[in-house]
Amino acid sequence: MNMENDENFYVLALDGGGARGIYPAHILACLERRLSMPIGNCFDLIAGTSTGSIIAGAAAAGVGMQTVVDLFEENAREIFGRKRFGWGMLRSKYARQPLERLVRECLPSLRLGDISTPLLITSADISTGGVLVFKSRYLEDQGENYVRDGKVLLGDAILASCAAPAFFDPIQLDEYLLADGGLWANNPSILAVTEAVSKFRMSLAQVHILSIGTGKPSLLYERRRLWGIATGWGRLKFVSYFLNLQSQASTNMARLLLEDRYFRLDPAIEDWSLDDARPLKTLKALADRDFTQNIGEIMKRTKRTHAS
């Protein structure tokens, strides 16, 4: 096997989407089998939000993607299985403990400063209304200032990114009160473009992105007479709606900037909530279909070895 001499910069960007994260995880498991190499070796930068941060973190830590698929299949129903008493008006819908147990037990106990693969994990500091991006040690490797994130556990960064409003409570990490990165970057493609240009000193012409969503509902709202949060908008549906809007906006901007160097997989789906584990098999089937139909486009945006 000979490594292609390539000055391009390859990015993997993974959306949030709760249980629907099995779709990008299965796409990447198929890619790993196809290339016979870890996903972490296939990209120059990996960015993930919420459920995408679980997949991104696993890839950066050397966890196989089939293991991640298995985690979704075996744990999604437990994580989203038992609603909390008083949810909606007084409490978040789910306790964080099942998700936290999954992250702690199934991912290596690494600090971000231990991870050499360039990794971005998005979150939001709701105490100040600011954005927060966790980064692995690539800034230090480049001789830049790298102080805050080096001691942060990968699992803590992921849990912060997964704390979707109304679904899970925010997480306190040092002085930060953190919630889901999907509040501002559910599709982290534009963040990844910015990092590639500003920190890695790449030109836009060098940046290639494989962006994987978790499914775009074909219909979210119909005409209603009452449009209160508890009626027409719907509390949880409203969260899904603005996450979907952010993903679409980021997609549109990335395509304008990168043109055909940006490729996105994001299948049309029914109105499946972030916490609905019933469509797991259907999402895997969609991933199989989309991987098979788009393997050429996927490979174009992957740093890889070629047979000599």
Taking the alpha carbons of the first and last residues, their distance comes to 6 Å
What's the story with the biggest beta sheet?
A: 8 strands, mixed
**Topology as H/E string?**
EEHEHHHEEHHEEHHEEHHEEHE
What low-confidence regions span 5 or more consecutive residues with pLDDT below 50?
none
Task: Describe what you observe in this structure.
α1 packs antiparallel against α3, α1 crosses α11 and α3 packs antiparallel against α4. The longest helix has 24 residues. The protein is globular. β2, α1 and β3 form a beta-alpha-beta unit. The chain is α/β, with parallel strands linked by helices. It has eleven helices and twelve strands. Strands 2, 3, 4, 5, 6, 7, 8 and 10 form an eight-stranded mixed beta sheet that branches. A two-stranded antiparallel ribbon has the order 1-12. Strands 9-11 form a two-stranded parallel sheet.
